[in-house]
């Protein structure tokens, strides 16, 4: 009897041990399968917990950093520029002498080096203010100087920090050789106790699925002419393989100086606004308050829109509602009402 009791006890312990092992093992397998399902579901829906306000692109990490708006030189002697390929939005607007200048706004990406940096104008300052951006320039017009010195916008200027935060490149001559690194922008913000947590207001964006359904007249190529100077005519060519536009100016593709990476754009927003020359040097005022005509070019298509100033942001409108951008990078070209968009802008369907 003792012998049988020992055998029964041994069998009982063996069965109990196996049961416990199975009990531990099965939950691990189930958890693994459930996690796989969750990951697959998220991938299928392309869901992200956060989104960049100026591009609409998703992110796994928080996107609440402040935007930085930098005045970029566009004189032929300043090309190719540094950092433009990392900008979320670039505003191209006439300064004096029928020369365009860029306001490049960075928030989702941080280029190592940016420039050449150029001087401030009042209408660029207002655009930067509308995006809660830290404004970067080297120099200023009389109107812009008053705005900057009044504390209208947080700013860093090369007139104050030339040779410290700003550096001069040896391969170009002034005024086409002022540069600033992103690290120095953050350093300057800290020195001046500027907050870098003021997230810019978000634009509206299409989902990736809705972007594939964009309709409109064909616009495989877009040309924008600024008066008689061919040096500042810009051309955008649509690449159907990537769904993006390549940019050309002065007959050459716009690329980054250091990396040679091309500028690739998802939205071309063309705005018509009243320009007025105000002094002998050809400085201008530009009416960014009244609204007006516009074109929105996306996914090889173009649509006529209106534009409106929404608390400092220039947004496309149709039938009283804001028109969403395609997720990605945007270039805004501002043209004068005289000669107007009909004479300044042309589209090619091929």
Automatic annotation (TrEMBL):
<protein>
    <submittedName>
        <fullName>DUF3048 domain-containing protein</fullName>
    </submittedName>
</protein>
<feature type="domain" description="DUF3048">
    <location>
        <begin position="54"/>
        <end position="194"/>
    </location>
</feature>
<feature type="signal peptide">
    <location>
        <begin position="1"/>
        <end position="21"/>
    </location>
</feature>
<feature type="domain" description="DUF3048">
    <location>
        <begin position="229"/>
        <end position="332"/>
    </location>
</feature>
<dbReference type="InterPro" id="IPR021416">
    <property type="entry name" value="DUF3048_N"/>
</dbReference>
<dbReference type="Pfam" id="PF11258">
    <property type="entry name" value="DUF3048"/>
</dbReference>
<dbReference type="InterPro" id="IPR035328">
    <property type="entry name" value="DUF3048_C"/>
</dbReference>
<keyword id="KW-0732">Signal</keyword>
<dbReference type="Pfam" id="PF17479">
    <property type="entry name" value="DUF3048_C"/>
</dbReference>
<dbReference type="InterPro" id="IPR023158">
    <property type="entry name" value="YerB-like_sf"/>
</dbReference>
